[in-house]
Write the structure tokens for this entry.
Amino acid sequence: MKLKEDKAKQIDELVPKTQDPNHVVITDNAPPSAKWYVVHTQSGHENRVLITLKTRVISMGLENFIYEILIPTQEKIKINKGKKTTIKEKLFPGYMLVRMIVSDDSWLAVRTTQGVTGFVGTADQPTPLPENEVKAITAFGQQAAPKFQAAFTMGEAVRIIEGPFTDLLGTVSAIDDAKGKVTVLVSIFGRETPVELDFLQISKI
């Protein structure tokens, strides 16, 4: 029991609760021989797999083989019910990156983690991710300007809640996530007229 408590404490110390839940550095002294590998997981369970794998690395004493786990994300502004919130959206749902040295034990530890369906590569020989691709993925995820994520879909009926067309009903005909704009077709003088609005100016019916 004492050993399990010590291991749990060690995990908490190495991975504090304030750390990014999508990025865990188990140890920061990874040698040049450590490479990044792409691991396929059950979609929607990436964070649970990350926690499980992190715990297994510590409990199995593999800190010198598995160094870092990353779920690539990017900040986006989500508009829902007229409210704006910042979220972290997964860039590649169903995938995460693991920085490791592949050995029989480390490969088996990752491969048999609950929720992992396999490595990207051949059956028993994972393919390392080129360093330039890793840098591109992390740089993309750290872009300063967040993008919008629409809570609306093409053809959806919406109500305008702000501006000169307040209370008119319309249909979404175009969505510009990057600018946070949406084009709504509203009936004016008996004909459909396109009106460009901000996400915050419309709501679902």
